[in-house]
């Protein structure tokens, strides 16, 4: 990877990751707009095997983490399009990278995503990508959303909840709560005794 690599677009939306991604819908939405989109996936993402892409969409596959992070950092807005709300742990590490880079984030409105983002505060959540994303993109063009605040709030949430320090603090709190609960069990005799 060449650290001086410049994406072919001055401003672009970014979407990346491998498992449980709805890239087909994302490509369909961006086919109907002049906004630039860079998608980074894997050769295993069958919905990225598209040959007739318009010039505003670039697909990269199996790049290294440094290049991935560089493309996130240079992007204007990041998108996390998920397929299955019940797929378990997928997209979390990519979402954390978006948050760490202080990016405005558009994401599928799934319970797992709601653990990280609050709609209209630290991200913009959507239900139906083919219907909702074009409206969100229009809203972004019309300055209906404060993208700077969305990015700042995403970073604040990341720092407060998802850094090593924040996670270590929460783990200590859980251990302390558990110790207090265990101590209270010992002090309170059982009714069945």
Structure in a nutshell:
This protein is of the alpha/beta class and 193 residues long.
Residue windows where pLDDT falls under 50 for at least 5 positions: none
Arithmetic mean pLDDT: 90
Number of helices: 7
Order of helices and strands: EHEEHEHEHEHHH
Q: Roughly what fraction of the amino acids lie in strands?
A: 5-15%
Shape: elongated
Strand order, sheet with most strands: 3-2-1-4-5-6
Structural class: alpha/beta
Largest sheet: 6 strands, parallel
Rg, rounded, reads 20 Å
Number of strands: 6
Task: Explain what the structure shows.
It is built from seven helices and six strands; from the N terminus they run βαββαβαβαβααα. With 193 residues, it is of the alpha/beta class. The chain has a six-stranded parallel β-sheet with strand order 3-2-1-4-5-6, with helices on both faces. β4, α3 and β5 form a beta-alpha-beta unit.
Helix and strand layout, with pairings?
Blueprint: E1 13-16, H1 23-31, E2 37-41, E3 57-61, H2 65-74, E4 77-80, H3 92-100, E5 105-108, H4 111-114, E6 124-126, H5 129-141, H6 147-161, H7 164-187
Parallel strand pairs: 1-2, 1-4, 2-3, 4-5, 5-6
Helix pairs in contact: 1-5, 3-6
Task: Please supply descriptive tags for the structure shown above.
193 residues; alpha/beta; 7 helices
């Amino acid at each position: 990877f060449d650290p001086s690599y410049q994406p072919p677009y001055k401003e672009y939306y970014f979407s990346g990751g491998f498992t449980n991604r709805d890239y087909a819908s994302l490509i369909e939405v961006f086919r109907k707009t002049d906004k630039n989109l860079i998608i980074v996936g894997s050769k295993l993402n069958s919905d990225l095997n598209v040959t007739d892409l318009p010039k505003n969409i670039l697909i990269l596959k199996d790049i290294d983490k440094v290049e991935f992070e560089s493309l996130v950092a240079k992007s204007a807005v990041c998108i996390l399009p998920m397929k299955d709300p019940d797929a378990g742990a997928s997209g979390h590490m990519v979402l954390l990278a978006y948050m760490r880079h202080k990016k405005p984030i558009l994401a599928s409105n799934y319970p797992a995503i709601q653990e990280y983002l609050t709609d209209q505060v630290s991200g913009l959540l959507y239900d139906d990508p083919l219907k909702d994303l074009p409206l969100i993109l229009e809203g972004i063009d019309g300055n209906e959303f404060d993208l700077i605040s969305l990015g700042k709030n995403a970073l604040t949430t990341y720092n407060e909840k998802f850094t090593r320090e924040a996670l270590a603090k929460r783990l200590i709190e859980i251990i302390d709560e558990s110790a207090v609960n265990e101590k209270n069990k010992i002090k309170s005799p059982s009714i069945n005794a």
